[in-house]
Amino acid sequence: MAALNVTESLTMAFASLRANKLRTFLTLLGIIIGVLTIIAVVSVIQGLNNYVYTKMAFYGAHDFSVQKFSMIGTSLKDFREQMKRKDITLAERDIIRAHCPSCELVGASVSTSQTVKSGSRSLKDTDVLGVTYLDHEIGAVLELSGGRHLQSTDESNSRAVCVIGADVAEKVFAGLDPVGRWLKVGARDFQVVGVGRAKGKILGFSQDNYIRIPITTFMKAYGSRRSVSVNIHTVSQEALARAQEEVRTALRSWRKRSYNDPDDFSFATSETFIQFYKTATQGVYFAMIAVSSIALLVGGIVIMNIMFVSVSERKKEIGIRMAVGARRRDILWQFLIESAVISGIGGFIGIVLGFLVAKAVSAATSVPSSVEPASVALAMAMSWSIGLFFGIYPANRAARLDPVEALRSEL
């Protein structure tokens, strides 16, 4: 099609849109809502994905843990089977340490929840973590803003000392220097020896509402009949794979598992958390995208109906154009371009509004969002495609009008 005809068709399309402002607005509304919904949903999804990959990797690239339960369960039956597994104990931590040459650091942790208090100030649902003295160097390394980490003598002597999170320091000690002060954890008193650097929140949940105490102290205070998590650091990806096999061999031998028996323990890595996240959210994401696509489909149907109305109203104009030499493909392109212009404008407005809605959701709920250039380009391509697809039939109908019959039409 010649450049002159394209320019003419664009000019006529904009003139038609300006001449019917209310109808144009109603037509745009369908596409705007569809694209707005898709952009908002995809932005939140992309933001969550980026957030999970960068923030929720609780283990380092070369770290893993051995746990009683698998993080990724496939069914209630699997969970019931895992309930029958033996608890992982500190003795097995020692077995792993002795029989895993590829394991550079081997620690252990266990947790419960308690209310902490100092004076008249208290904080509920604080995570109390019993840890070995080197556990802060495994996985997400714990940095301190003051004081010291737990030491080997704290663990060996079961001392009543703790390292607290930034939320505990701020809300319980109210601006005072916590180091050296005493804190009541449940019914027991602990002396604060260190304060963790603030990490912020993940999806609205604080990462700083915790207390770390020696694991031996934890067992005496809250009971030893519970499963621990054995946390392991290696020096490389290759060492990690070797370490997992060495740990598997050591534990299966210690637990007297036969060749045909499955493992009665599970490994967890950063990839495990990411896979758990994907499994938990995949169905929800597909459902959200499907609902958003339906909104865009409705917008396309609205465009087709309005284009049918436009063709019916402009039969005389079409007849005059044909009478002065316009070819059928010129008429076809005129209405196709008009349909594409409508959907393109609606797509652009929808992208802008979708971005604003995604940012508003992030501000209101702490759910992150991210608008990727590829998503914007895809949304524009989809909106134009919707306009062209749903504009084909009305445009073809206009192009097939008989010039004589068209000229007889009333304005």
Core attributes:
single chain; 411 residues; alpha+beta; 6-stranded mixed beta barrel; two-stranded antiparallel ribbon; 12 strands; 57% helix; elongated
Descriptive overview:
With 411 residues, this protein is α+β, with helices and mostly antiparallel strands. The protein folds into two domains: 181 residues, no CATH class; 206 residues, no CATH class. The protein has 13 helices and twelve strands. The strands form two sheets. A six-stranded mixed β-barrel has the order 2-3-10-5-7-6. It has a two-stranded antiparallel ribbon with strand order 8-9. Helix 2 crosses helix 11. The longest helix is centred in the last third of the chain and has 44 residues. The protein is elongated and about 100 Å long. The two termini are 29 Å apart. The mean pLDDT is 83.
